[in-house]
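Today's session is about reading a structure prediction critically. Students often jump straight to the picture, but the first step is always the sequence itself: look for stretches that repeat, for charged clusters, for runs of hydrophobic residues. Only then move on to the predicted structure, which in these notes is written as discrete structure tokens rather than atom positions. Here is the chain we will use throughout the hour.
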Amino acid sequence: MAIFIVPQLADNFAYLIVDDASKEAAVVDCAEADKVVAAANQHGVRLVSVLTTHWHPDHSGGNEAIAALVPGIRIFGARAEGGRIPALTDPVDDGGTVRVGKLEGRVIGIPAHTNGHVAYYFPALNAVFTGDTMFIGGCGRVFEGKAATMVESLRRLADLPPSTAVYCGHEYTEKNLRFALTLEPNNQALKAKHDAVVKARAAGKWTVPSTIAEEKQTNPFLRTDSSELRASLKRIDPSIGDDPIAIFAKARELKDRY
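Below is the predicted structure for this chain, in token form.
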């Protein structure tokens, strides 16, 4: 069993998920089909499916091309995206399953960034692929849902086992953690992670994966109960109360302008 990062576009990630026994592979979020096919060839695996997290073109824009390059490949994506996922062959729903060889993944509905956004959780890999809902140190913009919807989606991810590796859709980590430090400058775990990320990026390294446990310690959008974060937000906007959804919404509003 293996996971390989396949950089896409300017700052996107696709991921090859490989079942060692069968050498079958799925790709999560194909934006550039040629790079995905080249990576599969490099690792000596057979592409059998695409697991699309959401309809945005930087995550699904390579679906038609990869369908042309790999005859018979299956394209999975959420039925709730309303037909917006290109070349879709296998609609999936929250709670459904996908298979890559003997690996089984669970579909987790995590709407708000888009109405049908899903994550793919593979217990045998101890990994979840979160697209643009949970980033390392951040979360996606709330484009098609409401703040409460995103809070619930993030909770569903945060409820996964703490050691679960988080593979997200973009290399946004350094900026996300800089923003997080404006709200929790005394969070020692956050400061340590920020420093490590700065060094990693300076060395040309990616920052994925994180873990659910690390995100609970450092991701401001999972930390609406933090007294320091709340105090920082109330200094900015004294009118906000203690409602965690209002706290989340204010943090997201600030991040949108950061």
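Discussion point for the tutorial: The chain has a mean pLDDT of 98.
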